[in-house]
Fold Lipid II:glycine glycyltransferase FemX.
Amino acid sequence: MVSRVRAITTSEHVAFNATRPSVSFLQTPAWAGVKTEWGSESLGWFDDHDRLVGAGLVLYRRLPRTNRSLAYLPEGPSIDWASDDLASWLDPLVRHLRSAGAFAVRIGGLAVTRTWSAPTIKAAIADPTISRLSDVPPDSQNDAAHRAGAQLLRLGWRPRNDDDGGFSVGQPRWIFQLPLAGKDEAQLLRGMNQLWRRNLKKAAKAGVVVTEGGVEDLPDFHRIYLETAARDGFTPRPLSYFQLMIEVLLAEDKDRIRLYLAHHEGDLVAATTWVRVGDHAWYSFGASTTAKRDVRGSNAVQWRMITDALAAGCTVYNLRGITDTVDENDPHLGLIQFKVGTGGEAVEYLGEWDLPLNRLLYKAFDFSLSRRGRRLLRLVR
């Protein structure tokens, strides 16, 4: 049984994470060094024998003109989400955060509730009567994760809605991942669709070369990242953000993050960042040029990240967020179509849940400050 939650040191937190197969990179102590505009604290869960049995990174964002904060554990904490007694895990957390001045707590359970295979997704896209993947019977579902959701509701937690089609405030509930366990490169390649294989051959024939870069290459990455932001209509991060991210993540683990560059005849055509914690690797940021898109640098750099994740012993390559749309008229459809070409699977997480501690302040934050909240909670994109 969990008996208490208290602050732990960075070294204790890093050591605990190292005992797990993986935790989200947003739950590493180093991530607090990236989010300099937030306060932060590493917390540990201790059992009756004073053994550390869980951990989490809390980010605190203070409301203007108050001494109250939102306490946010992005894609965390790392606890036993299959427990039939989640209250024993979450109640001590809430008591600690209330004493720290939190007006609300937001958590992000990475327990997988449902998965859909690439063939199932393709069939859903081809069916004009289906508009959302959530309406399609999954290939697998996790009863323990569904029980966790029912427990959270009973404990007063509120699920974040997906009114934005899956890209709601915070971290995505829907992601796309490529299972790597038990596979080799040939098997992964055979699992991709014909378009992906053709594009990889096209990139190789055109002479696209993918290499690992260093901090000195970040200005080149950022140049085409700004081009991508202007083309795709999102607000870009400054160069300093990426410089800091690489610095602090590498300080925690020398192979926590990598920068990949795809060149064609000396021209940078695509660039990405790759993050790894334990046996889980993530595609985190990507950029590409409009010029020379026909040489398929984006496919080539993804394949390099996939094969490097496999070589590093990873069991999962995570392509991050998608929506659950399969409607041919939805502008987000192209995103899932690109990712499903890898032969992976769509995954629905338990997702993000809020517990209001001060209902008046929470309502003000959730409604009146909703647009500001979107900016405050933009952690990855």
User: Anything to note?
Assistant: The longest helix spans residues 218-232. Confidence is low (pLDDT under 50) at residues 163-168, 376-381. The chain has two domains: 2-109+141-166+350-376, 181-314. Residues 181-314 form a domain with the Aminopeptidase fold (CATH 3.40.630.30).
